[in-house]
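Q: Okay, next protein. This is Lipocalin-like domain-containing protein from Bacteroides sedimenti. I've checked the sequence twice, so it should be correct. Can you predict the 3D structure?
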Amino acid sequence: MMIQSINSLIMSKFNLMFISVLCIVPFVQCEAGTNIDEIKYAVVLNDTIKGDKSKNTKIEQCLIGEWFIPHAADINITFNEDRTFVFNDFNIKTEEIEVLHGTFKLSGNELILKYDNKPQQTFKFEKGKGADNNYYITKGKKYYFVKGDISL
């Protein structure tokens, strides 16, 4: 009876250890994969990454997603991984929201929107100051975009 009790205790500890290892292995593999990718590129001073031009840089990855103007969420931009965008902007002349499409280019902290049907526009894409690790898209006092956590 005592031996069964000891065997049962050993098996339960073994099972607990085995389950712990199974839970840790995916995180270790994910971290190892990240490190391998980082070795392929050289970081330059303006926080962008040199590498294959067809792939998005580390900073461009921060740009991908939905951006909106706080308290005016109807004005928003969605940046896609294929370097295209959809910009829902307010047209002052028509007093309506207009949907603009095009491609974007990030050069340093300049975000250039090349529209399909109008002249290009340049915004600033900058990281917050101090402890603020968020990025912001701005253009004068008219545009101030923050990244959203949910799809618009």
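A: Here is a summary of the prediction. The domain at 50-147 is CATH 2.40.128.280 (Lipocalin). Residues 123 and 140 are 9 Å apart (CA to CA).
Q: Noted. On to the next one.
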